[in-house]
Amino acid sequence: MLRVFCGPRGGYGNELGVVRDGSVLPGPEERQEFAAKLGFSETVFVDDPERGVIDIYTPTTRLPFAGHPCVGAAWLLDVPELVTPAGVVGARQDGEFCWIEARAEWVPPRTLRQYATAAEVDELPLPPKGEWIYAWAWLDEPAGRIRARAFPGRDDGIDEDEATGAAALLLTDRLGRALNITQGTGSQILTAPQPEGWTEVGGRVYLER
Questions:
Q1: Is the terminal CB of the chain with fewer CB neighbours within 10 Å at N or C?
Q2: What is the CB neighbour count within 10 angstroms for residue 175?
Q3: Which residues neighbour 18 within 8 Å (Cβ) at sequence distance 6 or greater?
Q4: Containing domain of residue 145, as a range?
Q5: Measured between alpha carbons, how far is residue 144 from residues 25, 106, 179, 195 in Å?
Q6: Can you tell me the distance from the alpha carbon of 149 to that of 204, in angstroms, rounded to the nearest whole number?
Q7: Can you give the three-state secondary structure of the chain, one letter per residue?
């Protein structure tokens, strides 16, 4: 189990389950059942550690791409790229941060909802199920600092996601600038637009157990 997008002092971050030998659960039904049993927002199955081939599941569905699973898997496997159903994800280590490079069109639909102040985002109640909402506000617009919370809207027990790289990627693509995002209770996500429609997403990763 990893924590991905941890804060500056190593706390917070979104939990991620990683099955390092995906061959022990080769079928999609088995993987879905195991991901539901673990109950993390996402679980990664590694099908080829040398080539970085991975398969990502929420408790209820398979995902072609997801941000914090890719950052966590890239850190754990220490590979230059990951192979996902959505496409090949670039990966690199840079000091305390692990970065991936992906495309906004790989991200499933999300509602990016801007609020006037960070306090409004902090005070939001859980929205109704059904709509995936990324609520955000500027903390410091000139510096690119943002406060955000993520509500997946799924009926799987994950009411709020602590840190979501894919939604941060979408927001970066929309705003067209590098961002420093504080999400959830204290997780940190860094992003940066890249040429030709690519976006980098980075954060700290820690091995929990």
A1: C
A2: 17
A3: 1, 2, 43, 44, 46, 72, 73, 76
A4: 2-207
A5: 42, 24, 5, 19
A6: 18
A7: CEEEEECCCCCCCEEEEEECCHHHCCCHHHHHHHHHHHCCCCEEEEEECCCCEEEEECCCCEECCCHHHHHHHHHHHCCCEEEECCEEEEEEEECCEEEEEEEHHHCCCCEEEECCCHHHHHCCCCCCCCCCEEEEEEEECCCCEEEEEEECCCCCCCCCECCCHHHHHHHHHHHCCCEEEEECCCEEEEEEECHHHEEEEEEEEEECC
Q: What percent of the chain has a predicted confidence (pLDDT) above 70?
A: 100
Contact assessment for residue 61 and residue 83, using Cβ atoms and an 8 Å cutoff: no
Whether 135 contacts 149, CB under 8 Å? yes
Nearest Cα residue to 144 out of 185, 190, 103:
190
The label of the residue with tokens 């199955």 reads: 45
Q: What are phi and psi of 197, to 5 degrees?
A: 85, 10
And the tokens for 208?
A: 């929990």
Q: With contact defined as beta carbons under 8 Å apart, do 69 and 42 qualify?
A: yes
Domain count for the chain, please give it. Answer: 1
Query: How many alpha carbons fall within 13 Å on the CB side of residue 104?
Result: 19
Q: pLDDT (tens digit, 9 = 90+) per residue, 123-141?
A: 999 999 999 999 999 999 9
Indicate whether 157 pLDDT > 90.
no
From 81, 12, 16, 72, select the one nearest 48 (Cα to Cα).
81
Backbone angles phi, psi at 175, to 5 degrees: -85, -25
